[in-house]
Amino acid sequence: MSLLTTPYKTQEEIRMKILIIEDHAVRLLWKELLESFGVQVEVAVTPEEALEKFRMHSDWTVILLDGEIGEAQFNCLPVLTEILRTYSGKIVATSDKVELRKIQMEKGCTEDSQGKPNVLALLSKFIQFPEALPKAA
Fold it and tell me: Are 130 and 101 in contact (CB under 8 A)?
């Protein structure tokens, strides 16, 4: 087998990809932090943009899904339904509303974040982030 036909994936192909569907400003913090670990991050702030970005890749590592974007109530449930047609990976319910996260879990989310402040801690349970640099002696 030549180097040109090797079955190994490129660095870009194995890079973690996370889709953040969120309109709260915390999305900017999540994006910045995840990108600092080399994660490819896409952010969507409307249901339409969420589906557009979702269709960009077939290999999302994780999708972070708020329950409501903008003023509409429960408007991410149709987004979840559409995503579940072709995606079987991890989908984290990130709403701060307990009742809404419960509905998201019933409709197909795989992980309950217990609210926005806990999202990054939850991600660290199932994503291998690089080890921190050793501290100077």
Answer: no
Q: How far apart are alpha carbons 135 and 81 in whole angstroms?
A: 45
Q: Mind listing the pLDDT tens digit for each residue in 96-124?
A: 999 999 999 999 999 999 999 999 989 88
Four-residue CA torsion sign, 134, 119, 33, 41: positive
Q: How far apart are CA 39 and CA 47, in angstroms?
A: 23
Which amino acid type is present at position 75?
Answer: N
* Cα 134 from chain centroid (whole Å): 28
What φ, ψ does residue 45 adopt, rounded to 5°? -120, 5
Cα dihedral 91/72/22/85 (nearest 10): 30
Enumerate the H helices of 1-137 as residue ranges.
11-14, 26-36, 47-54, 77-84, 98-107, 119-126
Evaluate whether 59 touches 17 at the Cβ level (below 8 Å).
yes
Mapped onto helix, strand or coil, the DSSP state of residue 41 is strand
Q: pTM of the full predicted structure?
A: 0.83
